[in-house]
Amino acid sequence: QAQLVESGGGLVQPGESLRLSCVGSGFTFSSAAVSWYRQPPGKQRDFVASISTTGHIINYVDSVKGRFIISRDNAKNTVYLQMNSLKPEDTAVYYCNADEVVVGGYSYWGQGTQVTVSS
Predict the structure, then answer these.
(1) What pLDDT is stored for residue 86 in this prediction?
(2) Is 63 left (phi over 0), alpha (psi -120 to 50) or beta?
(3) 28, 57, 87, 100: which has the highest count of C-beta atoms within 10 A?
């Protein structure tokens, strides 16, 4: 059964860093483009960053450019989100999404990991 599992969330102070991990199993991870989304309390889920299957194409929402870095290790079926210079407005549940870029491919979501930035 296909599964995505996020980890690495927690409570940090403004200016600190966290690294989130998203591990896939049960499908061909290297054939999936992977994105991170986040959902602040009481708000909609929004796009944060994405990475192509090979890692050559990367996109970020403007609010995290220069602070967050997305990367992947297909040998470990893992995508990372390095979050630096965290701000209170980064507080949200962070979700990982994997879209298989093949004909008839599926889209998978993880269960989310909480990130709280507060002094």
Answers:
(1) 98
(2) alpha
(3) 100
* pLDDT tens digits for range 42-63: 999 999 999 999 999 999 999 9
Q: Residue 35: which H helix or E strand, with range? A: strand 32-39
Q: State yes or no: pLDDT of 66 exceeds 90.
A: yes
The token pair that represents 96 in the structure block: 């990982």
**Three-class SS state of 92:** strand
Read off the pLDDT of each residue in 83-106 and give the average, rounded to a whole number. 95
Pairing of strands 10-12, 113-117: parallel
What gap in Å lies between CA 84 and CA 29, rounded to an integer? 26
Contacts of 103 (CB under 8 A, 6+ apart): none
